[in-house]
Each structure stands twice: as structure tokens, then as C-alpha cells.
Amino acid sequence: MKSLTEQLSVYESHHQNLVNRYLHYIGVPATVFSIFMALNWMSIDIAHQYKIPFTWILLFSVLGYYFALNMRLAALCTVVFSAVAIIATDVAKPSPTNVSATLFFILFFSGLTLQFVGHYFEKQKPAFLLGFMQLFIGPLFLIVELLKKLNVEQYFLSE
């Protein structure tokens, strides 16, 4: 498994253009939020009593990967992404409504469009074409970028 530094540097190498970065700052969260919404509409039933939405299955799986990369950063991501998942599942409701389905389509397709337009300016293919795991590095990369802007990345990136 590649280290956090290796994963982030691969992702960053495909996001050098400032326009691309700004479009990703909007597009990645919109896409993640919409995916959390859609996955809330699907669940695993346990003994016909408990429902576990796929939102949480995906989130815990990705967080497990993040913990393997860096414990402190993963702890922060647990708080941030859990809050996002809670809001997304509340907006999505247990099954799609006209409003939640419309919001999903708007967020998902506009988020992806922004990212692909960004890569047009970058003149480089998206990093996920290099490897599936790069899809999960995008949200992590944005958290690291925010930590750098706040000048606190040293507290989370050192282990």
C-alpha cells in the first residue's frame, strides 16, 4: 500500500492548475454529499429489524483506509465526514423524495462537471484513472489543503 505522502503527491500532481483546484474545492464536496444521499436510499436489512444504509458502510470502509494511512488525519476525517453523512442522510430521507432526488442529480452532475472542466484547464486526466483508490484520496486531499490554509497541518500529518 502506498503511503499517505505518496497518495497525496500523485493526486496533487494532477491538480496543479489553480482553476482546476478551485473547481475541485466545490465539485468534490458536492459529489461526496450527493453520493452519501444516494447510498442512504439503499440499505442492508438485518433480521428485518435494523437497517444499515450503504452510506455508513462506505464511510466506515473509507475511514478504515484513512486510518491505515494516518491515524490523526483519519480521526479528523471521521468527525468531518460523519457530520457530512449525517446531514446528507437527513436531507435524503429514507427514500427519495422529489426534492432529495432533484438535489442529488444537481449536486452529483454539477460536481462531476466542475471536476471534468477543471481537468480541461489542467490538460491532464483525472487521478482516479491511475488507480481506483485515488477516488478516495480526493476528499482527503481537500482536508489536507484546508489544514495547510489554517496552518495546522503539522499537527495532523506527523505520526
Task: Describe it.
The longest helix is centred in the last third of the chain and has 25 residues, at 98-122. The model has no long low-confidence stretch (mean pLDDT 94). The two termini are 17 Å apart. The protein has one domain (4-42, 50-155). With 159 residues, the chain is mainly α. Helix 2 packs across helix 4 (71-92). It contains 7 helices and 2 strands; from the N terminus they run ααββααααα.
Principal-axis shape:
globular
Look at the helices and sheets and give the structural class.
mainly alpha
Tell me the total number of β-strands. 2
Identify the quaternary structure here: single chain
- Fraction of residues in helices? over 70%
Give the strand line-up of the largest sheet: 1-2
Gyration radius, to the nearest Å? 16 Å
Query: Which stretches are low in confidence, meaning pLDDT under 50 for 5 or more residues running?
Result: none
> How many domain modules?
1
Largest sheet: 2 strands, antiparallel
How would you spell out the order of helices and strands?
Answer: HHEEHHHHH
Strand content: 5-15%
The number of helical runs is 7
Task: Report the end-to-end length measured between terminal Cα atoms.
Answer: 17 Å
Mean pLDDT: 94
